[in-house]
Fold this sequence. Notes:
alpha/beta, 20% strand, Peroxisomal Thiolase, Chain A, domain 1, 382 residues
Amino acid sequence: MSGLASMRPVRVVGIGMHPYQFPSETPYVHLGLTALRGALADAGLAWPDITFAAIGTGAIGMAAGRVMLRHLGSTGLEVVQVENASASGSSAFRTACLMVASGQHEIALALGVDKFGSAQRAANKDGVPRLTPEAEIPAVKFAMMARAWRDRFGLTREDLARVAVKNHGNAARNPYAQFRKPRTLEQVLAANPVAGDLTSLQCTPRGDGAAAAIVASEEAIRRHGLDRRRAVRVLSSVSSSEHQVADEGWSLVEMVQRSGLAALEAAGLGMAEIDIIELHDAFTIEEIVYAEALGLCPLGEGAAQLRAGQWDIGGGRCAVNPSGGLLGMGHPIGPTGIGQVTEIVRQLRGEAEGRHHPGARTALAHMIGLGSVAVGHVLQRD
């Protein structure tokens, strides 16, 4: 399914970011080129060395990539623009990896960039009237999921709030995060109510930002004299969409489970070998439910593991969302999935200053888009 296992090795050789921020007047070109220049400098490459670029964006508009990249010079590189909702950046990264793995290109760029915009959904134009428009609001859907886990497993309001406390605490140590202020349990619980048991500090807002990752073949690494010790291997990359499930099931949860386990299987690894997970936590309940679905812990035991510090940086076996996740780092849509990759690369290199998870060697990045698509990558340092 991943396509990478049977192809030539792919490694991330350069990463860069523009810090995520609240909606601003900063042009998207500045955001994107800041991340790109950072990735080129990190890799030790020049712009003409890149022959393929996948641009992940959800709200900027047509041909955003070409308009942006021409400011660095017209080199004739192949450019594609990828829109896959919140998984746009993840899908762009997968596309770049496949281009190198297949031998079509030696060095490829995945760049996610977005500004706060309308991002109108195609589902609102499908001609099918909605019986309950409120049920389509993401916060409502995940508030219902939280109630389901409360009724089935005894999940409490405090359990949900602890996700936000952990991730805001991680983000406070991340210079690229949009929210760099630690929060207490009392502050999270007392924040403005949004839906059900979810408060405003348990829901991610949108903003601006950019993230870039450059991937290369082994031959390109040798030819350009790149530092292979800092080049992180992409073991697998999997993309899928939802399946039909029984009426009592959650298709979203099953999709996360299927795609995440497929990424692990394609990498030839089990969850016990994963040291870091960056996953979709636009709402606090998602981190608990998806961690369970991915097999980090048995179903219904996520809250207990969180309380015990098992998902903390340095304190647990597997650090969950050390970047701060969507809740703390931010969720600009297009860059989000590539931002996960940049965090993982920093962690595996030992360069995540102030938030390093000791001994980390293998990591999983997993994103969903509008609850209907999922993309997972497994990365590993030598």
